Amino acid sequence: MLDLRLVATSLALLIALLSAALADPAKDQAQPAAQGAAEARPIRVILPAPWEPATKQAQAQSVK
Predict the structure, then answer these.
(1) Can you tell me the distance from the alpha carbon of 26 to that of 22, in angstroms, rounded to the nearest whole number?
(2) Per-residue pLDDT, 36
(3) What's 2's DSSP letter?
(4) Measured distance CA(3)–CA(9) in Å, rounded
(5) pTM of the model
(6) Which among 9, 48, 40 is positioned nearest to 56, based on CA atoms?
(7) What is the DSSP string of 14-61?
(8) Nearby residues of 63 by Cβ (< 8 Å), 6 or more positions away
(9) Does the CA dihedral 14-16-18-21 come out positive or negative?
(10) How confident is the model at residue 1 (pLDDT cuts 50, 70, 90)?
(11) Which of 1, 5, 9, 63 is spaced 20 to 30 Å from 38 by Cα?
(12) In this structure, what DSSP letter does residue 28 have?
């Protein structure tokens, strides 16, 4: 009885993994070489640490 449950569970897991692998084949394909400048570089936002006092934008620009 235990062997039958093990085989059924393994078969269900195999079917689930195969269906998940076949569901999104475009993820593994290479992206086109020509990308815009906005797509090539991620946008990074620098936030102050929670223990640092917040500064206004005018003060932050004068420090740079």
Answers:
(1) 10
(2) 62
(3) H
(4) 10
(5) 0.38
(6) 48
(7) HHHHHHHHHH-GGGGSPPPS---HHHHS--------TTSPP--HHHHH
(8) 55
(9) negative
(10) low
(11) 63
(12) G
Give the residue from 37, 40, 35, 59 showing the smallest Cα distance to 48. Answer: 59
Encoded amino acid at 1, one letter: M
The confidence score (pLDDT) of residue 13 equals 96
Q: What is the pLDDT of residues 17-37, one digit of tens each?
A: 999 888 876 655 666 655 565
Answer whether 25's CB lies under 8 Å from 18's CB: no
**How far are the Cα atoms of 21, 44, 47, 48 from residue 56, in angstroms, in the given order?**
49, 19, 12, 11
Supply the DSSP symbol for 26: G
Backbone angles phi, psi at 47, to 5 degrees: -105, 145
* Residue 47, SS3 per DSSP: coil
Report the half-sphere exposure of 9 (CA within 13 A, side-chain side).
6
